[in-house]
Amino acid sequence: MFGAATQAQAASPEETRFLQLYTQLKDPGNGYFSSEGIPYHSIETLISEAPDYGHMTTSEAYSYWLWLEVLYGHYTGDWEPLEAAWDNMEKYIIPVNEGDGKEEQPTMSYYNPNSPATYAAEYGQPDQYPSQLSGQYAAGRDPLDAELKATYGNNQTYLMHWLLDVDDWYEYGNLLNPDHTATYVNTFQRGEQESVWEAVPHPSQDDKTFGKAGEGFMSLFTKEANAPAAQWRYTNATDADARAIQAMYWAKSLGYDNEVYFEKAKKMGDYLRYGMYDKYFQEIGSAADGSPSAGNGKNASHYLMAWYTAWGGGLGNTGNWAWRIGASHAHQGYQNVVAAYALSDPDSGLIPNSPTAGQDWATSLSRQLEFYTWLQSSEGAIAGGATNSYDGAYKSYPAGTSTFYGMAYDDAPVYHDPPSNNWFGMQAWGVERIAELYYILASSGDTSSDNFRMAKQITENWVDWSMDYVFTDQRPVTDSDGYYLDQQGNRVLWGDDPQIATVPAPGEFWIPSNLEWSGQPDNWSGFSNHTGNANLHVVTKNPGQDTGVLGSYIKALTFYAAATKAEEGSFTALGSQAEGLAKALLDTAWNYNDGIGIVTTEERGDYNRYFTKEIYFPDGWTGIFGQGNTIPGNDTVPSDPSKGGNGVYASYVDVRPNIVNDSQWAYLLDKYTNSWNPQTQTWDDGAPEFVYHRFWSQVDMATAYAEYARLIQGGGGGPVEPVAPKAPANLKAVSGDAQVELSWSKSSGAEEYTVKRAEVSGGAYSPIATVTTNAYTDLDVVNDTTYYYVVSATNAVGTSPDSAEVSATPNSKPIPTGELKVQYRTDDTGENDNQIRAQFKVVNNGTETVSLSDVKVRYYYTIDGDASQQFNVDYAVVGSGNVSGSFVKLEPALPGADYYFEIAFAPNAGTLAPGEDSGEIQIRINKSDWSNYAEADDYSRDASKTSYADWDKVTAYLGGSLVWGIEP
């Protein structure tokens, strides 16, 4: 780990510009954020690329937001915006119950890891869908689910869903959390050829209100014997969650110290391992001959970051099912070696809590670096990737196909319209992270390991290649097809050190936009045997002015240059060139700042596709879109039989009629009417032009300034204007015998904490201790008296406000220490919702074997409105059918309890030998009218116990006698 530079100096232009861009992004008047505080994909709404509307957002945007706030924290010492960004992410785009009582994965507990999902083939054209849910290949076993349940108490996936309709433009509504305007939606579902122009946007929570009557939207994508059930389903883009973890790694390295959010990042990394698994958990490499084998354990893991993972389940009274898939296709642009390093290195402090997670990520780190080495062309660019399911259907590999750990080379994994590895941005994203790792390892003194050698080699070769095609104050000369030309007017194809012809262009920058690929890499047989891929080539094309890609590219150059200095003591020759180019690009880019962000005018030659009939609907399929229109509608054309379907095509406008209300629609329609030539398929009077303020793009540029200032100029981390700390958060109090144990989260910048106590809620409080750690045990208390506590934080500048108040009542009742004890935890952070969730383990603490059928466990709570209740066993190691429950009303009511539920065990639950435990038992109760419980004051509840711990407020009985715990 390494911290920021500490020398005192005036802010550099780059640091100043970072803070100016930060202000532009956060200014409410500039329109980057919604009323719920969510970053839009772009300020402008008429845009179609991955999101098909500007006021969508992606998990990518959230991950960039975290990165922005990390560097803001570094330069200002204010880390509160980082925590606010994570909180917003957890609230709106991680579909979990974040404490509001809304279950957004309501049936995940029914998931069977021995049968994760039903197989359906992928196809080359949208017209070949829906795909039959055939089960042709039985899914392998999911090896992660059990340990995730054991670690976190449930298996509700802690990952972002990739796409959010921020303002509910589609008008589907948020079914499972109607208090939120932002709505989970999805688009791409139908094979590698389905572009954004051919997708049908649909709700991720599909109760069949929209879509085809009785079927919803599911029957566009999959086919089954019966009508599809109502269901929820989410899809994760692995690169975004990995970037979020990458940001938290840098936060920790740069001085941020709130363990609450590091635990969240670790949990995200734990679940992100699903991105390492084949789609249907098939053994890696087993389908080379067209006959895949179901995986058994981790032989279904390729240890790379696949394109996605997905999970879902049922809605409604019959929704007692769930599923999960990985992905068989791995793209170079999605790998994140910094996240893998952070989640595996013992010094990072971010290794996840599951027992095998650290080793999985250590394997992934080396595997990702090998992947890049395998894919690096002889020029230095990185080719596409690999798949474990050829053509998406586990077809046999064509003869001569190059392989990587049994997976087949694919020059354009996942999508082909346009080819997924043609965009230069995929290069800059991936290699920038490898340059970071090169810098991290060099700074830590690791300059000899294979991981270091691969990171250095990949970055060095790539930087050497890319700089030949990047220019400031000059414009490269190209032909009409976008090929770079040399001084003699010849096309520059592959090869080293090309001499590109240029013309003077003061104030301009130009970077590549597209790449063309030929050949394939050599079969992979390890780093020590790799010889450099003499038969894999790239042609670099189409100079452009993509400011987002520019930001990533500058960071790649900056980290590379800093890494050479960390390794050698001074910049190498290539490192010096990289640093100089990074500086020149930053200076040039600032001239493109229009007061809202750094932007260029973009020519959108593909926007004729707003009007093209190409969205496929099968014959007879008709339904209702969220905006109220019938789809596909009456203005359709017959589908192309050569693409394998029998149906019709509609256009973007047919499906999304509200787009015509956009403020820029009239301009686009006029341009299309007067310039588009349908015969030549060209814009005779020029393509439409737009200026877009994409959030991720602006953050990429802002962080490029910040990282250059930090790494090259030693900016930040030095003297910042000191401020008083903020009030401590998450104050907790645990009662004991004549003592109260207090703990709280650290406050950034705090030097000491003052603990204050009162015997009346609200004070007045009297100071009882000053400590330098974030915990204190009050021993000066009397049992059966209630005490109220607050804590403040202090540094040289001043003292914070008091924390929120907590109370505790020490108790002298003895804790039985007999044959049993109960361990408890909960992930139910909602204090006012319609279910109580708790997890238990019964531990044999004695010297004799105990029959579980002789054991009872009681949990005490308040019902908050008498009603009949239901007892549910979501999961039990001893078998859910061997666990039962009953409800007992306490008369009179006791403090914190007017009911308890009692857990009992059937004879088939078995026995516990001395030292053994029952394994996890997940309990959930609800009232028959589904009214809320107010759990904050419940006797047996402790929301701070998110990991199993002995808990004396849950009691255990053996043969009817109390042997553990304290009754209220």
Commentary on this structure:
InterPro entries: 6-hairpin_glycosidase_sf (IPR008928), 6hp_glycosidase-like_sf (IPR012341), CBM2/CBM3_carb-bd_dom_sf (IPR008965), CBM3 (IPR001956), CBM3_sf (IPR036966), Endo-1-4-beta-glucanase_dom2 (IPR023309), Endoglucanase_F_dom3 (IPR027390), FN3_dom (IPR003961). Keywords: Carbohydrate metabolism, Cellulose degradation, Glycosidase, Hydrolase, Polysaccharide degradation, Signal. There is one protein chain. This protein has 968 residues and is α+β, with helices and mostly antiparallel strands. Helix content is 23%, strand content 22%. The protein has 15 helices and 48 strands. The strands form 16 sheets. The protein has a 5-stranded antiparallel beta sheet with strand order 40-44-37-35-46, with no helix packed on it. It has a 5-stranded antiparallel beta sheet with strand order 41-42-39-47-48, with no helix packed on it. Strands 1-3-4-5 form a 4-stranded antiparallel beta sheet. The protein is globular, with a radius of gyration of 30 Å. It starts with 12 loop residues before the first helix and ends with a strand. Mean pLDDT is 94; it is low at 1-8.
